[in-house]
Write a structure and sequence with these properties.
With about 300 residues, the chain is of the alpha/beta class. It is built from 14 helices and 9 strands. It folds into 2 domains: about 150 residues, Glycine betaine-binding periplasmic protein, domain 2 (D-Maltodextrin-Binding Protein, domain 2); about 160 residues, Dipeptide-binding Protein, Domain 3 (Dipeptide-binding Protein, domain 3, Roll), CATH 3.10.105.10. The strands form 2 sheets. Strands 3, 4, 5, 6, 7, 8 and 9 form a 7-stranded mixed β-sheet that branches. The protein has a two-stranded parallel sheet with strand order 1-2. Helix 9 crosses helix 10. The longest helix is centred in the N-terminal third of the chain and has 26 residues. The N and C termini lie far apart (about 45 Å). GO terms for molecular function: amine transmembrane transporter activity; carnitine transmembrane transporter activity. It holds the Pfam family OpuAC. It comes from Paenibacillus hemerocallicola.
C-alpha cells in the first residue's frame, strides 16, 4: 500500500509540475507581465483561459467537489477545459508555487481551509449555482451504533463546533504540529465547550471504535478532535481510518466503520447520501458555514466563473 501511495503521489507531483510549467510558459512570454491580472488589464492578448492553459487544479478524483467542478465546466460551457486530478496536498502545493511566482492559477477550494488565512484568495462567483451554495458538515453513524455504543453515539450526536474552532486546529497542523497534538491542545483550551459534548455520559472502559475520514485538512482536524475526546474523556480506543469519500461512506453503511464527522451536505456528498441513506443514520450538522467553489489568487483580474468562457 505504501508503494502504491508513493507512486501515486509521484505521478501527481509530475503531472502538476507539467501543468505549472505550461502556465509559466504562457505567462512569461516576451512583453508579458508575470502577473496574469496585469497582462489582461493592460490590454494583453491573453485571456484568463489562455493564461492558465484552460486547466483547473483539483484534488482526489472521488471527492464531491470534483463532481461539482465538472458540473461547472459543463454548465458554463467551458469547452476544452481540463480538471486536473490530484490530492488536497498537491493542490495547495501548486497554489503556493503559483502565488510565489505571481502566476495565474485556478483551484478547487473550500472553506474552512487554512489556505484562506495564509494567502489572499477569492472565490469566483457562481451565478448558475453549479457548486450548490453553502453547506454543512454532518456526523454520520452506522445503524445500530446507538445500541452498541450509547456513550459514543451520544458524544457524536452532541459534537458541534465553528469554522473558527476548526481553523485553530488546521492552522496549528499547517504550522508543523502533529494533528493529534493540535487536537489535544484545542480540547484542553476549550474545556467548557467539550464538557457539553460529554456531560453525563458513561465511560466506555476500553471499547473499540472506528472513525472514517477523508484527507481534507478540515476533516483531519475534526476527526482528530473527536477521536481525542472519545479516548481521553470517555475511555474508548479509537482507530481513525483515512480513505477516500466513497469508501468512507461505504464503510459506515456496511458497518465496518462506526461513524464519520466528515459528510459535506447537501451538495458535495449528495450522491453518497442518496445511495446509502437507508443504511446510515444522519446525526445532523457538526459545523455550519462551509463553502466550495473555484478559487483564484486575489491579484487575478477575474470575478466570475462565467468569465472563464471569454
Amino acid at each position: 500500500m505504501a508503494m502504491i501511495t508513493t507512486k501515486r503521489l509521484l505521478l501527481t507531483t509530475l503531472t502538476l509540475a507539467a501543468v505549472l510549467t505550461g502556465c509559466s510558459n504562457q505567462g512569461s512570454s516576451a512583453g508579458d507581465s508575470t502577473d496574469g491580472s496585469k497582462n489582461q488589464a493592460s490590454g494583453g492578448t491573453k485571456s484568463v483561459a489562455e493564461q492558465v492553459n484552460r486547466q483547473i487544479i483539483g484534488i482526489d478524483p472521488g471527492a464531491g467537489i470534483m463532481k461539482s467542478a465538472n458540473k461547472a465546466i459543463e454548465t458554463y460551457g467551458l469547452k476544452d477545459w481540463k480538471l486536473v486530478e490530484g490530492s488536497g496536498a498537491a493542490m495547495t502545493a501548486a497554489l503556493d508555487k503559483a502565488i510565489k511566482d505571481k502566476k495565474p492559477i485556478i483551484v478547487t477550494g473550500w472553506t474552512p481551509h487554512w489556505m484562506f488565512a495564509k494567502y489572499e484568495l477569492k472565490y469566483l462567483s457562481d451565478p448558475k449555482n453549479a457548486f450548490g451554495g453553502d453547506e454543512q458538515i454532518h456526523t454520520i453513524a452506522r445503524l445500530g451504533l446507538k445500541t452498541d455504543h450509547p456513550s459514543a453515539y451520544a458524544a457524536l450526536d452532541r459534537f458541534e463546533w465553528t469554522p473558527d474552532d476548526m481553523a485553530v486546529v488546521m492552522g496549528a497542523v499547517q504550522d508543523g504540529k502533529k494533528p493529534e497534538q493540535a487536537a489535544k491542545d484545542w480540547v484542553d483550551a476549550n474545556a467548557d465547550k467539550v464538557g457539553k459534548w460529554i456531560e453525563g455520559i458513561d465511560k466506555a472502559d476500553g471499547k473499540s471504535l472506528k472513525l472514517g475520514y477523508v484527507a481534507w485538512d478540515s476533516e483531519i482536524a475534526s476527526t482528530n478532535v473527536i477521536k481525542y475526546v472519545l479516548e481521553s474523556k470517555l475511555g474508548y480506543k479509537v482507530t481513525a481510518l483515512q480513505v477516500e469519500a466513497g469508501p468512507m461512506w461505504a464503510g459506515v453503511a456496511g458497518g465496518d466503520t462506526d461513524a464519520m464527522v466528515a459528510a459535506w451536505l447537501p451538495t458535495t456528498h449528495a450522491d453518497y447520501l442518496d445511495k446509502y441513506k437507508d443504511k446510515v443514520e444522519d446525526l445532523g450538522p457538526n459545523l455550519n458555514g462551509t463553502k466550495t467553489g473555484l478559487v483564484v489568487p486575489a491579484y487575478m483580474d477575474i470575478d466570475s466563473i462565467e468569465d472563464l468562457a471569454k
